[in-house]
Automatic annotation (TrEMBL):
Residue span(s) of domain SCP: 19-133
Keywords assigned: Signal
A UniProt-annotated Pfam family: CAP
Gene3D superfamilies reported for this sequence: CAP
Residues of the signal peptide: 1-17
GO cellular component, one term: extracellular region
Protein name from the UniProt record: Basic form of pathogenesis-related protein 1-like
UniProt xrefs under InterPro entries: Allrgn_V5/Tpx1_CS (IPR018244), CAP_dom (IPR014044), CAP_sf (IPR035940), CRISP-related (IPR001283)
Length: 135
């Protein structure tokens, strides 16, 4: 029984470690550095907005057991689908990536909520919002 509890605590700590603000922020700032964009700062206010939004979307979640790091890595992998010259996605969805690297975004807040059947909903929000603007 004690071994199970230690294993459970370790797995919980490992999962939480991949969902910490510093995890979301580090991956975002790595993607931004690759394209010469200044780093963002974590915002608890933006994170609270993301948490409220995630809770609203909870019934629609279908993402498997993802950590926050998994989600951000998936979004960063959209980079090859973005054409900087035209500021458009080419060959697929790249909107997550473009949000990560918008030059004018200075604050980040993310949330992850568990949903039915071991699914997750992970969301990040940016301040100021820049939907549709050029990078």
């Amino acid at each position: 029984m004690a071994a199970f509890m230690v294993t459970s605590i370790f797995l919980l700590a490992l999962t939480n470690a991949q969902n910490a603000p510093s995890d979301y922020l580090a991956l975002h700032n790595r993607a931004r550095a690759q394209v010469g964009v200044d780093p963002m700062q974590w915002s608890n206010t933006v994170a609270a907005y993301a948490q409220a939004y995630a809770k609203k979307r909870k019934p629609q979640a279908t993402t498997p057991e993802f950590t926050g790091k998994d989600a951000v890595k998936l979004w960063a992998n959209e980079k090859p689908l973005y054409d900087h010259a035209s500021n458009k996605c080419v060959g697929g969805e790249c909107g997550h990536y473009t949000q990560m690297v918008w030059r004018s975004s200075v604050r980040l807040g993310c949330a992850r909520v568990p949903c039915k059947a071991n699914s997750q909903f992970v969301v990040c929000n940016y301040d100021p919002r820049n939907w549709g603007k050029a990078l």
